[in-house]
Amino acid sequence: MRIAMLGLGSMNGAILAGFLASGVARDHVVATSRSAASAQVRAEQHGITVLAEEDDAEANRRAVAEADVVFLGVKPHGIVALCEEIREAVKPEAVVVSVAAAVDLQMIQGALRADQPVIRSMPNTPLSVGIGVVGLVPGAHATEQQVAAVQGLLEACGAVHVIEEAQIDALTGISGSGPAYAFYLAEHMAAAGVELGLDPALAADLAAHTVHGAGRMLVENHDTGAADAAALRKAVCSPNGTTERAIGRLDEHGVAAAVVAAVKASAHRSAEMTAELNEQV
């Protein structure tokens, strides 16, 4: 399988690192980057061929010419133009995968050949450490085998879920934006520690490792069916103990409702962004 990575920003870079670590042959991967300097750095970092658009106006078209899978890793507003650029160069049977937020299948498909296999994806930033989440939305012309191949590549970076496009805004609200919710919690746990007299570095370390450990416990229990998040929370809350008091205070301040509102706000904004991008096409 030959792979082209158009753009090596945070998401495409994380995906690339994941499947190279899983054993994908480096000489089967070609990437592109805007600047020659960036291309050189990325080529040395990953041990792959990286073409610079700065030096070669045909870089993207050359990169996709022999590819079986093409990952589009540019900003959302640049996806349609990139698809139009590579439309005649990409093989008709190659599957094109967008990792850009808010760009729907209709926009991607409309800028490529009418029957080009396409998959829309929504990854999150923990892909960079191999434990991310990715939602995949196959287009009408993507075969089961192509979806399985892309899923296999991405499973090197985390959990992969094949969903319907109507579900992608909700997925964005939970897993796409979700890492920021965890960071926000850790940020304010550490701030509280400082107010209680801890050294800032110690408070930050305690918060980071606590969130990390709790996340690992949750995943392991979820995957085995041993316990869900609510059960794990209740197990920590001894009657009239410190954690029960803390959770009570969170409830008094409406934190549960705020979390639900935050997820819905992210999902609604995702839908708005898609509408805005469609208006620009």
From TrEMBL:
Summary of the function given for this chain in its UniProt record: Catalyzes the reduction of 1-pyrroline-5-carboxylate (PCA) to L-proline.
Pfam families cross-referenced by the UniProt entry: F420_oxidored (PF03807), P5CR_dimer (PF14748)
Keyword NADP attributed: yes
InterPro entries assigned: 6-PGluconate_DH-like_C_sf, NAD(P)-bd_dom_sf, P5C_Rdtase_cat_N, P5CR-like_CS, P5CR_dimer, Pyrroline-COOH_reductase
Pathway membership, UniProt: Amino-acid biosynthesis; L-proline biosynthesis; L-proline from L-glutamate 5-semialdehyde: step 1/1
SUPFAM superfamilies: 6-phosphogluconate dehydrogenase C-terminal domain-like (SSF48179), NAD(P)-binding Rossmann-fold domains (SSF51735)
Name of this protein: Pyrroline-5-carboxylate reductase
Domain Pyrroline-5-carboxylate reductase catalytic N-terminal positions: 2-101
Binding site for NADP(+): L6, G7, L8, G9, S10, M11
Family, as annotated: Belongs to the pyrroline-5-carboxylate reductase family.
Subcellular location: Cytoplasm
Domain Pyrroline-5-carboxylate reductase dimerisation: 165-273
Gene for this chain: proC
Any single Gene Ontology cellular-component annotation: cytoplasm
UniProtKB keywords: Amino-acid biosynthesis, Cytoplasm, NADP, Oxidoreductase, Proline biosynthesis
Catalytic activity entry: L-proline + NAD(+) = (S)-1-pyrroline-5-carboxylate + NADH + 2 H(+); L-proline + NADP(+) = (S)-1-pyrroline-5-carboxylate + NADPH + 2 H(+)
Record carries keyword Repeat: no
EC number(s) stated in the UniProt entry for this protein: 1.5.1.2
Principal place of residence: cytoplasm
